[in-house]
Amino acid sequence: MKIVPFEMERMQSSWENRVRVNLSESGVHPLTLSELLAGEDLGGELLGYPQSNGTEELREKISDLYAGSSPDEVVVTTGTAEANYVALWKLVEPGDEVVIMVPNYMQVWGLATTFGASVKALPLREENRWAPDLDELKRAVTPKTRLIAIVNPNNPTGSILTEDEMRAICKIAGEVGAWILADEVYQGAEISGETSPSFWGWYDRLLVTSGLSKAYGLPGLRVGWVVGPKDVVADLWGYKDYTTIGPGALSERLARLALEPARRQRILERTRGILRSQLPTIEAWAKNQGVFHFHSPRAGAIVYLRYTLELGSTALVERLRDEKSVLIVPGDHFKMDRYLRIGYGGERAVLDRGLTLISELLESVRTEVGTPR
User: In this structure, how many other beta carbons lie within 10 angstroms of the beta carbon of residue 295?
Assistant: First the structure.
């Protein structure tokens, strides 16, 4: 089986540890082990195989995040990436139709295409502050639609669906019996501090995926999960037998620590503090450049910027990488040229240095291509 290349991940994997300034990340600066442990001693932890679908204790802590769910409706995965992978592997067959919110983390698009589905786009509309046009969704969904894939809060726009929009999406899916896959990995990283609602509990043919990478600042643990109907989750556990089998023992134990209520609250407060502190910096910088149009994100550590220079986004990003050793994400990777995704959740000094270097590159491009449109 030939896979569809995952352009963004391939670029990041190739360059994020080679550039001087990496602003391609979509999460906050990671916690240290000492910050997470906060006095806990794990010296006696056995380094054996853990429970492959996640220990009862970890699955219970995850189910506590989703009102009315039980540990039997949770399977622990190696990151949200594996969660999305096994969900698509389970649900999508050749010839199915899959409707995907765009722009979107393009893993699901690539997987659905690789698994033989016909993929349709549900565009978020910039003119509506990146809200979906629900009439477009109604037109896209047919009796052949197997799955509607959502990222909420959204990557890369930072937008958040309203409850009315969520209900409408569930209603449209229900009319044809389609599944909803709701990637909610940015839940908890809302600028306002008010946690965005989950799709959980609003629809029966639903899988919610999430993990500890974005809102929690713990991407190195590689812990994610799927929450869904008990019988489907049991099947997903079997699918994992062919992938990673189970999480790492230390990651499993540290995930249980991270999800202890008081510690979890401190972690999310840290994340939101970083976002509130640094978002004004990148907003002011973007406005000062004179080439960007954007809506401020409501969640996540990323800003999605439309620019007016006469240079494609991949070419611009490659020049920035080669000439200034700064890495950001081109809009091409979301099938949207003339956009850039810039992460602002890293260390403050790194952000400041990166923005200065991007400004230098933009000035060079302006000189070469003339006045922007």
Answer: 17
Nearest of 189, 187, 143 to residue 302 by alpha carbon: 189
Q: Where are the domains of the chain?
A: 7-30+264-363, 42-260
What is the rounded distance in angstroms from the CA atom of residue 180 to the CA atom of residue 237? 19
Strand order in the sheet with 292-293: 292-293, 302-307, 339-343, 329-330
Q: Which one is the CATH code of 7-30+264-363: 3.40.50.2000, 3.90.1150.10, 1.10.10.10, 3.40.50.720?
A: 3.90.1150.10
42-260 folds as: Aspartate Aminotransferase; domain 2 (3.40.640)
pLDDT given for residue 371 in this prediction: 53
Query: Please, what is the angle between helix 107-114 and helix 79-91, to 10°?
Result: 30
What CA–CA distance (Å, rounded) separates 218 from 254? 10
Whether 1 has a pLDDT exceeding 90, the answer reads: no
Scanning the structure block, which residue is given the tokens 């999960």? 225
pLDDT digits (tens, 9 = 90+) for 170-198: 999 999 999 999 999 999 999 999 999 99
pLDDT band at 369 (very low <50, low <70, confident <90, very high): confident
pTM: 0.96
Looking from the CA of 141 toward its CB, the CA atoms found within 13 Å total: 25
Identify whether the C-beta of residue 104 lies closer than 8 Å to the C-beta of residue 154. Answer: yes
The confidence band for 65, taking pLDDT boundaries of 50, 70 and 90, is very high
Beta strands in 262-344 (DSSP E): 292-293, 302-307, 326-327, 329-330, 339-343
What is the predicted pLDDT for the residue at 18?
A: 96
Structure tokens at 69: 């769910």
Token pair for residue 24? 């391609």
CA dist., res. 27 & res. 346, Å (int): 8
